[in-house]
Amino acid sequence: MTVKAYGAHGGDQPLEAMDITRRAVGAHDVQIDIAYCGVCHSDLHQARGEWGNTQYPCVPGHEIVGRVAAVGAHVSSVRPGDLVGVGCIVDSCKQCEDCDAGLENYCDGMIGTYNFPTADEPGWTLGGYSQQVVVHERYVLRVSHPEAQLAAVAPLLCAGITTYSPLRHYNAGPGKKVGIVGIGGLGHMGIKLAHAMGAHVVAFTTSESKREAARDLGADEVVLSSSAEEMAAHAKTFDLIINTVAAPHDLDAFLTLLKRDGNLTLVGAPASPHPSPAVFNLIFKRRAIAGSMIGGIPETQEMLDFCARHGIVSDIELIKASEINESYERMLKGDVKYRFVIDSATLTA
Ligand code: NAP
Ligand code: ZN
Q1: What percent of the chain lies above the pLDDT cut of 90?
Q2: Of the four, 135, 138, 261, 280, which is 20 to 30 A from 218 by CA?
Q3: Which residues face 31 on adjacent strands?
Q4: How confident is the model at residue 45 (pLDDT cuts 50, 70, 90)?
């Protein structure tokens, strides 16, 4: 089946309309009419070849929501007409320790929603900037938010789970002081989620213009990270800091804000490395630097249900598919509150 999509033919080329092929619906597959797809900074890194592994044509998009169009003979988890989501994972080995633990995100055979090997044409996965997608039922999430919120649910599938997972893993909640660095797509979700979990939330931003807005998202305090004085006021006080920044920067500035056994979790994935932090900032107070990648399928469902219960969605700006290149430029400037979402109906415009 041929469907309309938007993608790039090269790292130095703009995204443009293209036709792509989706496989026939297999016995365990779910065919989804995509209604909306969020625009993650990872899409930009990948489309522009910044991680050095992009296959072209590249159709990004891993914050997919829509309605089930058809299901294979053995599918029992969803039915045609259901509202569903697909995040960053469309397949995995299904038999390793990680898959058994519901941590498909850490399976060595994980297949990402775009740019991963597949038997489907053209040999690598093509993402959600498209009209339809066909996915094994294991990787299809149920959406219980009201349909009117569907566009704003899309970013939960990556930005939401990527911040939810480390917040849960490190037990963010009442009595914990949690920092969120970078108020973009991931960061604004991190603030909302940490607030809903009951933590004391401090947002770190480089943008003075986001100071008030961060409070509206649920931050108890906002720190301008370029102000040494504001940073020093929080020295040795954090249990957990989640860093979403998409560019290399000085990590020591945040390490020194952790208390004993505090953890700095890096989720931002810059194209080039951060300068190595000072070892003494780790060994004093037994601090740790960790990484975290999206989340497993059961945890993604848990996150969606948590958000539905707490009335949490992303703050979005809906765009036409043809506005994607301009949106990438604006995302690079931090000029979005806080996530662009493509209205898939505009793929045919
Ligand atoms: P985004 O919307 O562009 O947000 C990043 C934010 O970081 C910006 O809004 C800005 O916030 C801050 N920032 C950007 N450049 C900066 C710089 N040079 N110095 C200091 N702060 C800067 O991006 P996103 O979609 O949230 O993604 C963030 C990163 O996470 C990307 O690298 C992406 O690839 C990665 N990611 C990782 C995972 C994972 O599984 N680990 C999943 C999804 C995405 P302020 O204006 O508030 O400073
Ligand atoms: Zn993403």
Answers
A1: 99
A2: 261
A3: 70, 134
A4: very high
For 60-72, the three-class secondary structure string (H helix, E strand, C coil) is: CCCCEEEEEEEEC
Mutate to test the pocket of ligand 1, among 37, 39, 40, 180 (most ligand atoms within 8 A of CB): 40
CA gap 92, 116 in Å, rounded? 11
The yes-or-no verdict on residue 178 having pLDDT over 80 is yes
CATH number of 160-291: 3.40.50.720
| pLDDT score recorded for residue 8 | 98
* Ligand at shortest distance from the CA of 162: 1
Q: Say yes or no: CB of residue 246 within 6 Å of ligand 1.
A: yes
Radius of gyration of the chain, Cα coordinates, nearest whole angstrom? 20
The answer, yes or no, to whether any atom of ligand 1 lies below 6 A from the CB of 330, is no
Domain ranges for the chain, please list them. 2-158+296-307+315-348, 160-291
Which residue bears the tokens 């998409």? 246
Q: Is the pLDDT of residue 173 over 90?
A: yes
pTM: 0.98
Residues 52-76: tens digit of each pLDDT: 999 999 999 999 999 999 999 999 9
Q: Identity (one letter) of the amino acid at 235?
A: A
Name the residue of 163, 206, 217, 335 to mutate for ligand 1: max ligand atoms within 8 A of Cβ: 206
Q: Express each pLDDT in 107-116 by its tens digit.
A: 999 999 999 9
- Return the CATH number of the domain spanning residue range 2-158+296-307+315-348: 3.90.180.10
**CA-closest residue to ligand 1 atom 22:** 245
Tell me the pLDDT of the chain averaged across its residues: 97
For residues 238 and 221, the answer to whether their CB atoms sit within 8 Å is no
Over residues 40-50, the mean pLDDT reads 97
For residue 210, give the ligand 1 atom closest to its CA: 47
The gap between the terminal CA atoms of the chain, to the nearest Å, is 19
Q: What is residue 349's predicted lDDT score, i.e. its pLDDT?
A: 75
- Closest Cα to atom 12, ligand 1: which residue? 182
DSSP 3-state of 57: coil
Residues whose CB is less than 8 angstroms from the CB of residue 205 and which lie 6 or more positions away in sequence, other chains included: 182, 183, 211, 214, 222, 223, 224, 225
Which residue from 88, 44, 72 is spatially nearest to 270, judged by alpha carbons? 44
Separation of CA 43 and ligand 1 centre (Å): 12
